[in-house]
Structure formats: structure tokens, C-alpha cells
Amino acid sequence: MFRPLDALFGLFSLDVGIDLGTANTLVYVGGKGIVLREPSWVAIERDSSVPLAIGAEAKEMVGRTPANIVAIRPLRNGVISDFEVTEAMLEHFIRKAHSQLLFPFPRPRVVVGIPSGATEVERRAVEDAALNAGARQVYLIEEPRAAAIGAGLPINEVRGSMLVDIGGGTTEVGVFSLGDFVVSRSLRVAGDEMDEGIIQYARQKYNLHIGERMAERVKIAIGSACPQPEETTITLRGRNVVTGLPEAIEVSSIEIREALRGALTAIIDLIRDALEETPPELLDDVMVAGICLAGGSSMLRGLAQRITEETNVPAWVADDPMTCVARGAGIVLERLDEYEELLDKAIERYTRPPDL
Predict the structure, then answer these.
(1) What are the φ/ψ torsions at residue 32 (nearest 5 degrees)?
(2) Confidence class of residue 197 from pLDDT cuts 50, 70 and 90?
(3) 59-68, 73-82, 168-177: which is most confident
(4) Are the CB atoms for 212 and 198 separated by under 8 Å?
(5) C-alpha to C-alpha distance for 20 and 122, rounded to whole angstroms
(6) DSSP-derived pairing of the beta strands 16-20 and 24-29
(7) Which strands make up the sheet holding 180-187, listed edge to edge?
(8) Is the pTM value of this prediction over 0.85?
(9) Which uninterrupted H or E stretch holds 246?
(10) Could you give the domains of the chain?
């Protein structure tokens, strides 16, 4: 459908797909691909809540700020926890994506990935934040659907496809056929819970208090979901909670795997529940095609192998899994006429006309 206003605004702005993640925000620009990948962190002045730094710069400040500055993540468990800060972060990222344009007030159409389990209030908050950040029209798409499109799964075909999107705040499971969900599951356990497991393990076993960034570094460096050919070690640095003094402890990848056990068990149980509800004919398709894993936390060593062993269904990690949601949102935006019916099912009651 031809829209004169869209054509006019399109001369001055680049439409974008956004993966508004708990840990990272990615921006896809039509015709250009992923142009921005930044941590979802904002450093604000404590009293006024004025943003002082956003993205990678803000993440570097975590645990290092003076009393009048605090670095926060304005999204928790995949949804907005601080509306005003999220709005400022989105505006910053949208403008940064448009930095090559001379037109000072870009008004892009935006497709935003949201958790499939988000409530109507949570969806509305995302839409409002994007509109207030400068979007002229907002479309919402469930993250597993966007990730499946970004990963290249044939979700519009009659045969079944299954995707598990493991991000920072949520794990999303979707079984698709003929373009829509057959089974959908969402759990607010993902990468953040893995980090928290490492923090709790260090405190309980070694009386060592470590920060979120240290836990994340350890997870990335030696974290695993199943035994590895060569187990390794890493040094944890923090504060001894008994003496109050700095301390360094060497821990093994075996110990970190134990620290991750609770979060991994919850994620695998979610996948099992989805498989149990999948109709037999579609289950046959899934067993042939396998379970596609997307999201940054899907890159945990041995996770695909662990899921395969626990479910008897082969699992595999998508190419560049962290960008699947953003790429899928961008593909939908570039082919809006083709995907309009899909979007109408998901977001018809959340889309507003452009501001004039």
C-alpha cells in the first residue's frame, strides 16, 4: 500500500529495526544492515536522572562512579523498568544510526522486538518510548518470531520450525508453522541469571563478593553447559565479605559450570515443556530440522550439545546469533507489505498513526 507520508519522511530518515535487549541494543538500518551494537547501559546523574553516558561508555563506568553518578540498565527481564531512561537511550541510538544524515530530526518507522510473554502494559511502554524517542510509527514483533526470520528459518511453510532465543533477560521458545506460533513459551531466566549464579557461587563457596561485570567476563571466558575436552581456570577478583579486604581466587570451568546449573536447568525445562506441547507431525519436522538457538547467551560453550542430550532433538546455533532479532526486525521492515498481515496479528492494537 502506498503511503504518501511514509514516502515523504523516507526521504529524510532511515527506517530501523531494533532489538531492545536487556543486555545489548542492536539497530538494523534498511539497506545497510546492523549499524549499531551497544550495551543497554545508561549513566545518569543521581539527583536529576540526566543521562551522562549511554551504551559502551556507560558500561565502562559500572562500579566505578562517584556517589553522584549511577550506571543502570533501564531494562530488566526484557522489559522496561525505567521509562524515561529507556526513552533517552532509544533516542540516542536512533540518532546515532542517523548520524550520516544532515536532516536534524529523523522520524523513522521502527520495528522493535519484544518478549512474547510481554503484557499489554509492557508492550505499550515500549511503543511509547520509541514514539517519544523520535519514531513516526512503531511496529512490535515478538522476539522469537523476529529471531526466526533473522536466522532464515522457513516459518511461513507448512513444516514446523523451532527456535530458542536466549538473551540477557529472557529465554523465548517458539514453534512455528504457516507463519504463526503453534507453541510459544517465555521465561525470565537467561544470561543475567547465569551471571547471578556465578556471583552467588563465589559468595557462598569463597566468601567473595564480585560484581556483575566480573561475573559476565568469567561466563564468557570459561563458562560451559557440559564437560569440555580441556577444563580451564580463571582468577576471580573481589572483596572478601568476612575480612572486607581485596582477594583473588582461582576457579575452574567445572566450578563455573556448577554455578550455571540452576539457570541452565530452567532453560532446558522450558524447551522440554514446549516440545511436549508440539503436535506430533510438527515434532517430526523439528526432529529433522533441529532446534535453532539464537541470542547472545546461546553462544555458551556446549549449550547446543547439552540441549541435544537432554531433549533427544538436535540443536544448533544460528549464524551470528546475537543479531538474529535485529536482522529479523529489519527484514520485516524492508518487506513490510509481505509481512504486514503477520505484524497486524501481533501489534494492530499497539500501532499509532504518525505525529503530524
Answers:
(1) -120, -20
(2) very high
(3) 168-177
(4) no
(5) 13
(6) antiparallel
(7) 180-187, 171-177, 161-166, 291-294, 315-317
(8) yes
(9) strand 246-252
(10) 4-146+324-350 (3.30.420.40), 162-189+266-321 (3.30.420.40), 191-261 (3.90.640.10)
Kindly state the cell numbers that stand for 5. Answer: 507520508
Long-range pairs for 227-236: beta carbons < 8 A, 24 or more residues apart? 227/254, 227/257, 227/302, 228/253, 228/301, 228/302, 236/202, 236/206, 236/208, 236/210
Question: What cell numbers appear for 229 in the block?
Answer: 575436552
What amino acid is encoded at 189 in this protein? V
- 265: how many CB neighbours lie within 10 A of its CB? 12
Average pLDDT over residues 198-227: 96
Q: What is the CA radius of gyration of the chain?
A: 21
- Which amino acid type is present at position 311? T
Tell me if 13 sits within 8 A of 5, measured CB to CB: no
Cell numbers at 79, concatenated: 522489559
* Four-CA torsion 239, 245, 251, 257, nearest 10 degrees: -20
- Which grid coordinates are listed for 211? 560484581
